[in-house]
Amino acid sequence: MRRLALIPLLLALAAPAAASAAPASAVSTGIDQCVVAGSGTAGSVQFRSRMTAVPRSQQMWVRFDLQARLSGDSGYQNVSTRDNGWIKSNAGVDEFIWHKLFQGLSAPGDYRARVRFRWLDADGKVVDSASRRTAVCSQPDMRPNLELTSLTAESTGDAGQLRYVLGLRNTGKGDSAAFDISFSVGGAPRPLVSVSGLPAGRSQTVAFVGDRCRPGEPVRLEADPSDRIAEVDEADNVLSTTCPAPVRR
């Protein structure tokens, strides 16, 4: 069972279960708001329930059990939360609406609630019950994802140097802060190339002048070699190729 840092809202209460016979129109569920986690902030979801009185009922109870399907999970798992119990209506009401907030949701993940409803008579006995699942609040991975896509070279007029043009893109949902690109030729490191940052979903080229590589010589480039940027996937940061044939500008 997973545990998340969720803010407790209500005290837990206990009640016996009963078989469900409540009409479909007597209950409903929904999502008031689904706040997606941002940079350095956790996500949240607020569910809503509505129930109406049924014959012989004098009080209504509702309970929200949070369920999560996180990255790598094959299905939904119950999330353990503190003080997440039954919420009671006032006696004798015809309608009971409740809004339940869960905070501290991690990403990526999908969240829903199992909402349980109970109707009690004047003696406190359960006369009916029902259960529904809410819609899903999805928390996408908002980190950037840097990829190196291509390398070409241009003549500079200096026989010992080339102007290298590197293609890169950010396929993630978050903007990337400044990062470096390491560059080595034939296993020998060359000076780092600095990039000021790359917005989410954007592509760009970075040009820099360096010592000329020889035809067929192995060339390796890596985005963010010091791992300063938290990314969705670190495995696609490397571009290994051979020395590109230079073209004239």
Mean pLDDT: 89
Taken as a percent bin, the fraction of beta residues is: over 45%
The low-confidence runs, each spanning 5 or more residues with pLDDT under 50, are 1-19
* Total number of helices: 0
Structural class: mainly beta
Question: Ends: how far apart?
Answer: 61 Å
Tertiary shape? rod-shaped
Organism: Capillimicrobium parvum
Signal peptide: 1-21
InterPro entries: CARDB (IPR011635), Ig-like_fold (IPR013783)
Domain CARDB: 144-240
Description of the structure:
With about 250 residues, the chain is an all-beta fold. It folds into two domains: about 1-140, Immunoglobulin-like (Sandwich); about 145-240, Immunoglobulin-like (Sandwich). About 0% of the residues lie in helices and about 50% in strands. Strands 1, 4, 5, 6, 8, 9 and 10 form a seven-stranded mixed sheet that branches. The chain is rod-shaped, with a radius of gyration of 29 Å. Pfam families: CARDB. Keywords: Signal. It comes from Capillimicrobium parvum. This is CARDB domain-containing protein.
Short description:
This protein is mainly β. The protein folds into 2 domains: 2-139, Immunoglobulin-like (Sandwich), CATH 2.60.40; 146-242, Immunoglobulin-like.
List the helices and strands and how they pair.
Layout: E1 2-3, E2 27-35, E3 43-52, E4 59-70, E5 77-80, E6 87-88, E7 95-105, E8 109-120, E9 126-133, E10 137-139, E11 146-155, E12 161-170, E13 179-185, E14 188-195, E15 203-211, E16 218-223, E17 238-242
Parallel strand pairs: 1-5
Antiparallel strand pairs: 2-3, 3-7, 4-5, 4-6, 4-8, 8-9, 8-10, 11-12, 12-15, 13-14, 13-16, 16-17
